[in-house]
Amino acid sequence: MVAASRRVWIVRNAWLEWSTFDVQFHRLIEEAATVGIAASVTSSDWVAAHLDSLAQDELPDVALAYDKDVLVLSLLESRGVRVLNPVDAIRVCDDKAATYLALRALGIAQPRSVIVPLRFRPLDASEWGASHTLAAAEELGYPLVVKPTRSSWGKGILRVDSRDELLAALVAAEDRDVLIQAWHPGGSDDYRLFVVGRRVVAAMQRHAPVGQLAANVSAGGRAEAFTPTAEQARLAVAAARGLGLDVAGIDLLIDGDRAVVLEVNSNAQFVGLEEATGCNVAAEIVAQVVSIMGW
C-alpha cells in the first residue's frame, strides 16, 4: 500500500502537449509506485488556481518540476513543498546568459561568450555596427553562434559566418535577449550527461541532422550511448552541483581532451536517453527523491 505521506506531484505546463512528456510522466509514476510513492500529474495552471484553497495535508511532499514557471513553483515552495529542482536553480538555468555568468563564477569551462546588453527598442544594422557588442563578438572570431537566452529544444539558434550575418541576426532579435558564443571545434554534435545527485547516471552522444545546429533528439537528432571520461563526468557534476540542481541534463562539447559546458538543463527530458542507453533514468530520479526526503 502507498503511504499517504509519500506524495509527489509531477508539474507540467497545461498548454505544452507532447507525447514524449506523457511517456516520461508514466515512467516516473511507474517507478515511484515500486517504492511506495503516490505520484500524479498536475498542471501549473491548476496549481496556480487552487493551491491557496488546499489544506496542508492535501499538498504533496515533493513536486517534480517539468514546467519552468518559476512563479507557480514558488507558490509550492512557499507552502513547504520540496520542489525538484529548486526554484532558484530553475530560474538561473532558464536564462542562458545567467547560466553562463553563474558557471563562469564557478570557474567551469564554457565557450567564450558575449552577453548582448538590454535594449529598450529594436536596433537597426547601423546601430549594431557601431556598437561595442559587435566589436567584442568579432574578437571571438567567426563563425559564431547566436542563441536566444530563453529557448528550448535548440529553437532559434543560428550559426553566423560573417559580419553581415551577425548584424542580420541581431536585428532580427529585435529587443529579445540573446547570447553570442564562439563556435566550438566540436561542431553541431554534443554530449548529454544526465546527473542525478552527485553522479552521472547515463550519457549519450547526439548527432544533429544535416543542416541543423541543434542535436536534440526531440528535434530529429540521432543519439547513441556514450561513456564519459572521469574528467568529463566531474565537469558535469560540478556544473549541476554548483547551480544547486538535484537532477540535470548537462550538455558538453568535446574536442579531443578538452570539454566545455554548452548548456545546463534543469527540466531535462529523459525518454530518448533511456532508449539510447538502456539506463532506468526514471528509477534514478525516484531514488534521488527518496534520498532527499529520507524515506
TrEMBL record:
Keywords assigned by UniProt, alphabetized: ATP-binding, Ligase, Metal-binding, Nucleotide-binding
GO molecular function, one term: ribosomal S6-glutamic acid ligase activity
ATP-grasp domain sequence ranges: 100-290
Pfam families: RimK
A Gene Ontology BP annotation from the UniProt entry: SOS response
InterPro entries assigned: ATP-grasp, ATP-grasp_RimK-type, ATP_grasp_subdomain_1, Rp_bS6_RimK/Lys_biosynth_LsyX
Matches recorded under NCBIfam families: rimK_fam (TIGR00768)
Protein name: Alpha-L-glutamate ligase, RimK family
Species the sequence originates in: Corynebacterium uterequi
